[in-house]
What we know:
By secondary structure, the chain is α/β, with parallel strands linked by helices.
Amino acid sequence: xxxxxxxxxxxxxxxxxxxxxxxxxxxxxxxxxxxxxxxxxxxxxxxxxxxxxxxxxxxxxxxxxxxxxxxxxxxxxxxxxxxxxxxxxxxxxxxxxxxxxxxxxxxxxxxxxxxxxxxxxxxxxxxxxxxxxxxxxxxxxxxxxxxxxxxxxxxxxxxxxxxxxxxxxxxxxxxxxxxxxxxxxxxxxxxxxxxxxxxxxxxxxxxxxxxxxxxxxxxxxxxxxxxxxxxxxxxxxxxxxxxxxxxxxxxxxxxxxxxxxxxxxxxxxxxxxxxxxxxxxxxxxxxxxxxxxxxxxxxxxxxxxxxxxxxxxxxxxxxxxxxxxxxxxxxxxxxxxxxxxxxxxxxxxxxxxxxxxxxxxxxxxxxxxxxxxxxxxxxxxxxxxxxxxxxxxxxxxxxxxxxx
Length: 404
């Protein structure tokens, strides 16, 4: 077997538990650094240099480097997809899907997951140190796009010596990256699984993101984006943004099943503005725990990247043009109760792929768990992913083991 991490630089260890320190020296991660000779050319017309990408790998790369699977994370995710998170100490965010014997089997595939550019867990972003000033970038960091994230991932693959990915998998913002991979690098991808996503954000989704950004920027501790330099932290604003966004990840049925109108640790209302209801307490917990691991400016940057995403706009407003005669195998998956990225969005992708002559399969999974269903225990999702990858592996010539 070939170890893929030999040329990668392991991040320095740090005892500082603040999430901002993970922006430069991510714990329990590998780091690929790119100097002035390898800038990242951004859609904004800027060449970002130097920059770095933090990532994790699971499993082993085979001798022909043909079993690599890239997993793309969603808005609030990171590279710790199938291992304990160094900040929260929680299990990986997609351990239901990835691991030994799981649908994305690490005994068979070499799994790579990188923190996106603009993030805050080791890849260059607004909380990273600007080498020219020695201070955190803040809002001086250039605005990035989904395509910029994918360009950076392609550079990481070059760094690892991997010419073609067996598969790219992701949900939500991760699904957007998957689609961008298929559109921008069709020769470097054999198969893709875009889950619970779309090729562009709706006006409603942009509106929800703007409310979240305004919540962050309205916090006096945001300090015009200079809070790291000034020793502040817009925790309240970021927590409110997270609370609002989290509601969109669920469904009315899921909220009702889990909480209903039950009171929190009491039988009667307090006639105050405490968290009387269980759902209020739940949202407050989601907000307070989120700020411990995420950077407020990264939240602004990544939501803006999702808002700007529009594959059709980059191809004369004809989505099919983005995938014309694509050699990539697609499996598009949606969920019936996902109102953030409804099934109609996935069907539009499928129709465009059909028009482009691409090989595509589609599944709508019936569930009341909402958008977050792709992260939860959904047996039908697991069966579909396993079946699609098994068929693709057979077509790709991969054996049941990690060999080729």
